Amino acid sequence: MTTPHGSTRVFSRGSWTEASRIAAVLRRETVGGVLLLIGTVVALVWANSPWADSYEALRDTRVGPASLHLDLTLGTWAADGLLAVFFFVAGLELKREFVAGDLRDPRRAVLPVAAAVGGMVVPAVLYVLVNLGGGDALRGWAIPTATDIAFALAVLAVISTHLPSALRTFLLTLAVVDDLLAIAVIAVFYTSSLAVGWLALALVPLAVFGLLVQKRVRSWWLLLPLALLTWVLVHESGVHATVAGVLLAFTVPVVRSEAAGGPGAGPGLAEHLEHRFRPISAGVAVPVFAFFAAGVTVGGLSGLVESLGDRVALGIVVGLVVGKVLGIVGATWLVTRFTRAEFADELGWPDLVGMALLGGIGFTVSLLIGELAFGTGSERDDHVKVGVLVGTLTSALLASVVLRLRNRRYRRIEALEAVDADHDGIPDVYQRDPDTPGAPGLRRGSADG
């Protein structure tokens, strides 16, 4: 969105249609976040109880056909299988944003994409600096790069902040982009051996799946077997199987074909599949993964101190708490510096710092990368879990303080966004020219607080 002076507004409102859709998505993710928290707490309590052996036995129970190399532990099934559903939904969300959402406008897309990149690069750099000379510790450089949107939204639900829709959209988009960048990192840097033949074979069911969805075929008995076969072949290739979820998502069309009425005829297949699979992702896949991944034996205060004495855990905490803030805020500053962007109504740098601290809530993908880097159940993997938990909780607490201090301002914005004088179901602020001087909810210049 541009101002009368030709500059871009940061955190400006998008369209009402997109704001409504994002609000619905965030409500579902918030429920998933609560379930994620429950799974995490249950795992931590069980793993630190007298019955810890039974937790490990359950996590390490193997199921599946050995002839297909799929006799995997339940923990691996959760990481490789269930998280593929999570990344399928994330891929659908990202594609929809850039094809049919507000982010199809490059001026609106540049900020969350730049912030996501900055929020990955700086934590990785800080982790490397903390672990220089640490040998294999450097394998974990990507652990503090990802943001867990479900966990972040659960924190928002707990602190009951009246966060404006533009900030919520920014947080969701940033988290989805960095999840997709994280899966690219996993595919490139955490693939220990690559079987090109299996990977080439995976392209066959993937292409058939893509052909069917491009023809708007919705029959689950055709699509599901092709998706499962693609997943199995990608798994056999040595590439992490969650990559299959992203590849499948990117083949799905976002808008309706002209024969079906075009973009204005209702939701496309991507939105249809996202609606079907998001409850499975948020309500089952992520909480179950958290349950199997978060169970670390801390060993009391002394054990916690010992774990944080490992530079791997320390690097993760520094990356999540400090690196995310520096990366997201720094990237946003560069965007505003070189595009003459200005903050929208009553929002400023303190709000961005709050968002950046929420970005430091890294959990699902961070734990996954930790397992890939150091091996499930290893001592270093336990230290990774402690680092991720401490970094996440610290970021959550700091974000809560910052956002609660701004809550009165957010309530005013929320009240403005709720005014519907003509009772047509669309708030008035979405029906006025945002570039008109003096338009409600907007002002010229940047906000400092």
UniProtKB/TrEMBL annotation:
Transmembrane segments: 30-48, 68-89, 109-129, 141-159, 171-190, 196-213, 280-301, 313-335, 347-374, 386-405
Its job: Na(+)/H(+) antiporter that extrudes sodium in exchange for external protons.
Topological category with respect to the lipid bilayer: Multi-pass membrane protein
Stretches of the chain forming a coiled coil according to its record: none
Record gene name: nhaA
Entry keyword set: Antiport, Cell membrane, Ion transport, Membrane, Sodium, Sodium transport, Transmembrane, Transmembrane helix, Transport
Lineage top rank: taxon: Bacteria
Annotated PANTHER family: NA(+)_H(+) ANTIPORTER NHAA, SODIUM ION/PROTON ANTIPORTER NHAA-RELATED
InterPro entries referenced in this protein's UniProt entry, alphabetically: Na/H_antiporter_dom_sf, NhaA
The family this protein is said to belong to: Belongs to the NhaA Na(+)/H(+) (TC 2.A.33) antiporter family.
Keyword Membrane: yes
Basic and acidic residues: bias regions: 426-435
UniProt entry tagged with the keyword Metal-binding: no
Record field: catalytic activity: Na(+)(in) + 2 H(+)(out) = Na(+)(out) + 2 H(+)(in)
Localization terms from the record: Cell inner membrane; Cell membrane
Residue ranges, annotated region (Disordered): 426-449
Name used for this protein in its record: Na(+)/H(+) antiporter NhaA
